[in-house]
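Dear colleague,

Thank you for sharing your sequence with our group. We've completed the structure prediction you requested, and as agreed, I am returning the results in plain text so they can be pasted directly into your records. Please verify that the sequence below matches your submission; if there's any discrepancy, let me know and we will rerun it promptly.
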Amino acid sequence: INTANAPAEKGFRYMPETGEEIYSSFLGVPIQRLGEKLGVLVVQSKQARAFSDDEVYALEVVAMVLAEMTELGAFVGEGEALAALHKQPVMFRGATGQEGSAEGHVWLHEPRVVVTNPVADDPKKELKRLNDAVAELRLSVDAMLTMNDGGDKEQMAILEAYRMFANSRGWMRRMEEDIARGLSAEAAVEKEQSAARARLETVPDPYLRDRLHDLDDLSNRLLRILTGQGADTGAEMPPDPILVARNIGPAELLDYGRRLKGVVLEEGSVGSHAAVVARALAIPLVIHADKITTEALNGDRILVDGDQGIVHLRPEETVASAFRDKIAMQAAAQSRYASLRDLPAESRCGTRVGLHMNAGLIADLPSLAGSGAEGVGLFRTELQFLIRAHVPKRSELVAIYARVLEAAQGKRVAFRTLDIGSDKVLPYMKRVEEPNPAMGWRAIRVGLDKPGILRMQLQALIRAANGRALTVMFPFIAELDEFRAARRHLFEEIERERHLGHALPAKIEVGAMLETPSLAFAPAEFFETADFVSIGGNDLKQFFFAADRENETVRRRYDMLNTSYLTFIEQIVTRCTEGATHLSFCGEDAGRPIEAACLAAMGLRTLSMRPASIGPVKHLLRRISLTELRGVIDAARADGAVNVRAQVMTWLSAQDI
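Please find the predicted structure tokens below.
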């Protein structure tokens, strides 16, 4: 804050005990280190004037020095900087980034690098140190790319984007300017890193936040090169490491590889590069564990519940014992589910339900055989676009889609075309500010307005099929005309491939995701033309109840077992039956056993879910009669119930389930 007349500012509060009434000018800068606010440094003057840029910069440097001195424990007794606060049990409620459970000991990712020389007298020397360190950093990134050459395409794309940041001229220029003004190379890097972290707090866009995280990761590496504190921190990684970090770049996570038993992050997102790598490595991941890096110490005992998004730090023995019991019960349950893997999901009344899995990466595909999934009900094709800094080449997409079909070994794979927009914005796509992006320019609306990428993707799918069956699903269809237009693009590309003499799919299915209530009321032609319809449960529920699924205040307010919603699902089943259209349900609710059973009772015969949910859902379906369950639901509706969950739970208890 830099103002010539502080008492006139809206946020001014007069406090007589301070004696500040004689001052007019006010300059305040935060004392912060890597985004953590420690205090405020203020100077005031009686003369009414705005402080100059040089004065502001000088105060920022002093604030930085104070922050470093605080980190070194300069204002407390030796050893008191990490006092006894770090001894009590703490539970963190975060969010699931990758399912799974793990017990181990904390390994702090890049413990804070201590900068002991924030200012320097020789800018030329510091500039050379910076340039040498950046050159070494770029070589290390190139080496990681070389080591991963020919490996997983998604991981390679992540590293390519990472290298682009390492060669950013703007990043270098800002650090060079700070050195020219008297900072050491380390302090210049840390100043830029702190600025990036401050920007993170104000950037709502998930893609931009991920890019700032990549820049933060690069800054960490550069600081370790400059200080020599990276090779050996003095601590030894435990045999059962659970990595704890504010955030982590994809390259850093790839460095650790499969040594980790789990990962806990303060930040991150389900679609972040780190989450992509965690899924590929099958590492349990909890995100949004707020302030865990300031609480955890290397070697602390830690329990990670990736299924619930919960972390227990320094747990009491009773908690640890209960957690181990839970893991043991899960292992026993997994053993039961494994015994059902090759058996059908057939209810006691003889109704068979097809259970398929959702996927989006090559690394997901081993679960196809391991889970007993009958196919891939949803393959999200946008992930290959989101993790790249440029539009993938058609040949790259052909190779990826072909690998998916080969891994499926003849099982059905429903490829959903690009669902971009909303919270998934491509780095090379012009950003459009929208007040409600979830209901804005996204998915098929983008594809039809800008058909170049859509047609290129359709070409890649046709070529990848190479004589095999192909299933294409268009997302976010709201009316018949949109489906007609999307379908026309597909068949025009098929004719083009035929003209070029390329192999065509042996069989082609064309369907749509029903995510908007309007499509349930489409003309009969839609249901007669579409080979299949897949209910996108997550979006459909939020639009049906007008409840944003990203809003924690309202998203849990409405239950899928609400009578109105079940009646709406029943209507969709009826429309598809009349049009002889295959119907499936895809979404979080499909993977919850009770909800899945109710969907099946309402007439759904295909459900698509996370691979880990297939076992529990199949286990319940094989133990109940769907005919009886439908009777329970119908009776509750006839009695005027707003929600049927209580009646369903009572019925299940009576069945000893």
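Summary note from our side: The first helix runs from residue 53 to 71.

Kind regards,
the structure core
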